[in-house]
Design a protein that fits this description.
Number of strands: 12
Number of helices: 6
Helix content: 25-40%
CATH class of the largest domain: Mainly Beta
Order of helices and strands: HEEEEEEEHHHEEEEEHH
Strand order of the largest sheet: 2-12-11-4-7-8
Shape: flat
Structural class: alpha+beta
Radius of gyration: 23 Å
Largest sheet: 6 strands, mixed
Number of domains: 2
CATH architecture of the largest domain: Sandwich
Distance between the termini: 62 Å
CATH topology of the largest domain: Immunoglobulin-like
């Protein structure tokens, strides 16, 4: 949940608005990754609590977001030089692009939330606050943002699933969001938003940890925390395996 969204919700609480509340949970708060990891499926579910215990007669809409750790990323743009070869010509850095972002909703987002609220709560891949490097013109910024979003949508790291949130009897809700094998490890949040007349009136968030374990965790930790030791170990292991394979083939 963005800082602006937290401030808006805090203001609503201080004003004493009698609005519904959301309680939520996730199917697996700790997702473990090993060599055979092919992705995971996370169920986000919960209930809507109404102040007077009566469900409203009008439509009820929700959006559920599964958001991965923010990353600093450089986006490069290729152009054909001399009509012969493609080369990286321009690049820019985004300081806080989510490594994974999947949003599900009861209906298409443009049908249930107004642009201002979508921007405040970052509901939609094109509403993400990517924090681009300064110095770009608005036209260049939009071009690079669209390029980044397009690349991550093709890699199923940015996903928009309209109609994937179901609400039973106006109270119980659920959404199932997939985490691909290429999703980055780290801290994730599962966020649920209750929407009425284009405005977010309630929200909640749950933490999810996506971490490697076993030998994969040891290798990753060694590579990050002690790269010299890791590099020497890999070289020695490669030499030993090569020598062993050569000896085996000489004896056959």
């Amino acid at each position: 949940m963005s800082r602006r969204a937290i401030l808006v919700l805090g203001w609503m609480i201080l004003c004493g608005a009698r609005e519904p509340q959301i309680v939520s949970d996730v199917s697996d708060p700790k997702v473990s990754i090993n060599y055979s990891f092919h992705g995971a499926s996370e169920m986000i579910f919960g209930a809507i609590i109404y102040p007077d215990g009566q469900t409203p007669t009008g439509p009820i809409d929700m959006a559920v977001v599964l958001r991965g750790p923010s990353q600093s990323i450089i986006v490069r743009e290729k152009q054909k030089l001399g009509g012969i070869i493609w080369a990286n010509v321009y690049d820019t850095r985004f300081r806080s692009a989510p490594g994974f972002y999947s949003i599900a909703s009861t209906r298409p987002l443009d049908k249930i939330i107004d642009p201002v609220n979508a921007d405040i709560y970052e509901l939609g891949v094109h509403e993400l606050q990517l924090s681009p490097a300064s110095g770009m013109t608005p036209t260049d910024q939009l071009r690079f943002e669209n390029g980044l979003i397009d690349l991550r949508e093709k890699a199923t790291l940015y996903v928009n699933r309209a109609g994937a949130v179901t609400i039973s009897n106006g109270v119980l809700f659920r959404a199932q969001l997939d985490i691909p094998a290429r999703a980055p490890v780290g801290h994730y949040t599962a966020e649920a938003y209750l929407i009425r007349k284009g405005h977010v009136i309630a929200a909640t968030s749950r933490d999810i940890s996506l971490q490697k374990f076993g030998f994969e965790r040891f290798v990753t930790g060694a590579a990050q925390n002690d790269p010299l030791y890791y590099g020497l170990t890999v070289v020695i292991l490669a030499i030993a395996l090569g020598y062993g394979a050569g000896a085996l083939f000489r004896n056959t």
